[in-house]
Amino acid sequence: MNNKLNLALQQRPTIPRMLKFVLPSIITCVFASMYGIVDGIFISMVGGNAAFAAVNLITPLFLIISSFGMMFGTGGNAIVSKIRGEGDDEKAKRVFSTLTISVLILSAILTCLLWFFIDDVIILLGATDDMLPLCMSYSKIIIPFIVCYLLQFYFQSMLVTAGKGMMGFLIILASGIINIIGDSVLVGVFAKTPEQAIQGAAIATAAGLLIGGALPFVYFLFKNSSCLRIVKPEKDIKIVLKTCSNGVSEFLSNISGAVMNTVFNALLLYIIGQIGVSAYGSISYINTIFLAIFMGYSVGISPIISYKYGSGDTEGLKLVYKKSMIIITVISVIMVVLAEALAKPISALFANGNQELMEITIVGFGIYALSFIFKGYNTFASAFFTALNNGLISGVLAVCRALLFSIGAVLILPIVFYLTYGQDTALLGIWWSVNLAEFLAIVMAVIFLLANKKKYKY
Questions:
Q1: How far apart are CA 314 and CA 326, in angstroms?
Q2: By CB distance 3.0 to 4.6 Å, which of 84, 123, 157, 177 could disulfide with 77?
């Protein structure tokens, strides 16, 4: 298996070869992103608008939690692949083991903190009196499974590094099936109240997380056919710090995304109330799937980038970079067309017959979807520098994109629309802010890519 993986990493990059290599990663990320959508559909149908809004309000918290696993996964992916490119497979195993143990320790710390302070966190997120008990019911079930949450996101990247991308997909598929069955039975059949719907969805999600996090851990714990397994760890704290600094962009992207969701929810609650949170929740679910395609490509292609960089194959690195731009352009155009065409039927999935909610969602999604033309380039640019072991540039891109540009735009643009076109247009300013933020981010990404072309020779 190692020889097969090495051959895939060493081959001259072509678009068909690259797509074949990243396809399992893309499918895995898409399936993983669908968990929340399935939960959302069942909760909105059974629990109603209050339950749906409560889950959307608490979602940013668990996005933050998942970002730790993603940080170790993407940052470690780049380091382990680079070490393998340098020809030291044994050290790669030791580093992988160190990172896996670090994720377990971090999971235990986060679990304890959230268990004792979750009520304060939910209030901080802005939960109203009727939303608070629903948020608590969901959180108390999910928190004990945080270790699986982090491991799932961590191993999504590491399975690709180990040449087991298809295994990662099968694990996520099994996890998703468990989640869907759980939602169908616990929410669709047995739930009669909003709280029961919330609890049923949480149990289904927890069962899926158990599959997604525990199975790959057991696989790597014993001797296997991949190039990685858990062995005696590398006793070097610098490796952990390097991984965190290298994967900080993905961490900050998720953190910033969670902050962004919280700001959106707060503004929507202020402008049009709970129905605005529900509309944005529907849009966020679809955005998660579309973004997962870009993320899956970036995660899947990163081992090739890191390997080419570590082995000094500058010609191969150039080809990966150029062909990735072509692939992302094609995917971006297809996404925008699909999103605009499917805005109405997708909105109907979550509206549950509420005509006002459906109309708000259709308008918002139609505007929001235009941002997909930029999102792919921005996601890849950040992951590209992570794969090159340049966490600083990757982190700057992520912070500016998700914090400076996104939050700045959503705070300013609604005021501009309000003052220019009247009170009723403030909501449009919120939807258009995403497009402005992504456009500003792509300008910055182009500047960094051009400025570092000679240094990395891509």
A1: 19
A2: 157
What's the token pair of residue 441?
């981010």
* CB contact set of 229 (below 8 Å; sequence gap of 6+): 93, 96, 220, 221, 222, 223
How far apart are the C-alpha atoms of 291 and 377, rounded to whole Å? 11
Please answer whether residues 430 and 417 qualify as being in contact, where contact means their C-beta atoms are separated by less than 8 angstroms.
Answer: no
Is the pLDDT assigned to residue 1 strictly greater than 80?
no
Q: Among 51, 430, 120, which Cα is nearest to 274's? A: 51
Task: Give the pLDDT confidence of 301-315 residue by residue, as tens digits.
Answer: 988 898 888 888 899
pTM: 0.72
DSSP state string for 53-85: HHHHHHHHHHHHHHHHHHHHHHHHHHHHHHHHH
CB 42 within 8 A of CB 198: no
Instruction: Please tell me the distance from the alpha carbon of residue 458 to that of residue 146, in angstroms, as a whole number.
Output: 39
Round to whole Å and give the CA distance between 398 and 391.
Answer: 10
Q: Per residue in 164-181, is it b (16+ CB within 10 Å) or e — as a string?
A: bbebbbbbbbebbebbbe
DSSP for 181-244, written as a single string = HHIIIIITTS--SHHHHHHHHHHHHHHHHHHHHHHHHHHHHS--SSS----SPP--HHHHHHHH
Residue pLDDT, tens place only, 365-385: 889 889 999 999 999 998 899
Cα–Cα distance measured from residue 411 to residue 269, given in angstroms and rounded to the nearest whole number: 14
Amino acid at 285: Y
Q: Is the dihedral of CA 166, 167, 173, 177 positive or negative?
A: positive
User: What is the rounded CA–CA span in Å between residue 436 and residue 450?
Assistant: 22
Q: Within 10 Å of residue 359's Cβ, how many Cβ atoms?
A: 13
Q: What is the dihedral of CA 198, 255, 339, 74, to 10 degrees?
A: -110
Helices 248-271 & 391-399 angle (0-180, nearest 10): 0
User: Which amino acid would we find at residue 89?
Assistant: D
Residue in the structure block whose two tokens are 């949450």: 149
For residues 433 and 407, the answer to whether their CB atoms sit within 8 Å is: no
DSSP-assigned letter for residue 390: -
